[in-house]
Amino acid sequence: MPTIVSVDDSTVPGEGSSRLLLLVSSDNKHIVVEEDIMSRSRFISKQVEGFEATSQRHAILLPFSSFVLNKVIEYCSHYRGYYLLEDDPDAAPPGRSPVREWDQEFLDVDRNMLLRIIKAAHYLEIKSLVGSCARAIADMIRGKTTEEMREILGVENDFTPEEEHSPSSKCTG
Amino acid sequence: MVSSFATLIDDVLLKILEYLDYKALVSCQATCQKTNAIITASVSLRYKIELAACGMLDGPRGGQSLDITERLRRLRLYDTAWRTLRWKKEESFAQFIGRPLPSLDRNTLIFRNVGHSGSAAGYSYYTIPSAIRGVDEQAFDLVMRDPFQLHMLDASQDLLIWLDRLSSTPETSPRGTIRRNRQLPRKRRGLRRPTATVTTSDLPMTGVSYRDSDRTSQKIDEIWPQNYRDPDVTSGQPAPATVKSIAHQHNFCPSATVEKIGPTTKSTAQLPWEDRTPCQPQPRLSSIVDIREDLLLEMISLLDRTEYIARNWKTGIVELKAVAGPAQQLRLHIPLGTFSSYLMSHPLTETSTSITVPWAAWGPMGSRATFLEQDIVPSEVSAQGMRVLCMNYGSIHREQTATILDYHPLRVARALMLQSSGNNDVSILRGGPGTENTGFETTLPCIATNILLPSELPHLGWCRGYLCENGMVIIELDERTSMIKDSWFYTT
Q1: Is A70 helix (H, G, I), strand (E, B) or coil?
Q2: How near does any CA of chain A get to the CA of B31, in Å?
Q3: Which domains does chain A have, with CATH numbers?
């Protein structure tokens, strides 16, 4: 586990008006990003607000690997400065994320990676990324049989035989 | 190690499931206990599955519409009513001799009156009673002052939809008006003439004028306020300032969603027929940019998606919402002439020409929809709603909104039955969606004495059966003529 690192604003080279954040991944990699890139993450924003209150800046420890973290940072950098409706805490939550082509390419990864990204996005509270990942996962299992879905989702059939044969959903029509 | 999606917390799993259609949901439900529990617990997912199982489309959301719990409750209520239909006794009604072939719309037989000497053409309605559903027997005539194009009734019998006559002048357009028809008599066998009025289509078709809508982040909707009077045609009054607020009362319409949009640019060009607008020059907005026409067209062709918002026949300006890249939306004001020349050279064929307007049982009573397109043909009423054809000069996607008052699963049965009436076999229902597999084919002859078994039918030419929504079956038999030879009515 990484130790807590105290960061002073002067220790990291400032660039322009944006301040820098130090993120520490679970494999103890230190990653420096500009604050306004990560402002899409509600989790990070709350942490930063905490810094303001205590006037102490710490590294933010994240429970996932640098590989995943870099991917999330790539996403946030791409949408830096863009307004995404899903991420607006004041806006009414939209039902579904809109289809964004860039996201589809960005999330063209294997299912394990997708699983990690969605977990990370949920941890960081980036709703737009969670939505896009959810859409990507849903696209993977759409049109598949139950057996294929189990394989993709990596779940075991834990129904008892009786349950399986009973009409668990009477509305299949 | 293979990671499992079952390790995701429920919230995230639910998010994923929300993107699935009902078929995938049903399969997914069978994968493991966890997904099963999530789907069962989620009202919105249950609703999605049951809605699809009943063959229905959802109504518009938001605004004053019902919330999803209430929708699910009603859906189940109707579904239960549909499943527990009991055929009780046979009853026959006097046949309507000497009238043209009736058509059945919802629970109502409709006879067209051709109009004898001195009397205007109109329709006679005969509502078929049902004890189970609490539908009273009703009869009424409707005489229209003006000729009209088409009409429909909804299932709850208190909504009359009609489309006004087509007009050939370019500044007017047909408008279908859906309104609650409270005049329909409620008392039994009451034969009255409801004082229905037909909206005249003498107003030029415009959307809500966007002269005053310089806040581009608000989507403008196109519902005509009833009291709006065109400033130029009538007395030169300016448009009332309440136009916007009136329009926003109808915010259950999908087109009325207010969206925040990203960086906004406005562009406009000079009107090709400036002389048509003698009054009120377009106010200059600070963000308006003048763009050369060819550049503008090139710009449109580069945009990912354009969406038609409004057009103003008076100023001849078409308003488009365009999406360029992620999160960037533009609002374009383009002169109509330019726009149509663009369409001529770039037909955008992928946009739909027919739209199903769902039966939105979920809207508040008395809601209405106004179609502003030039050529709208409501082509059929199906299980899923009213299908509307939009002859849209090629292309720009255009949202149609209609809000209807009631929804009924029996519509499915009727639609299925009518589909299979091509051969000589009266197939009442063969286990359509949301029904038991036994269907009515076996139960029907047992209780109805006058009915012919399907095996007896082939020698009788074609026949047509109606399954009314109150559970009654009407069968018309015909010997390859247009006359009704005989009719049987079976009631609940």
Answers
A1: helix
A2: 6
A3: 4-156 (3.30.710.10)
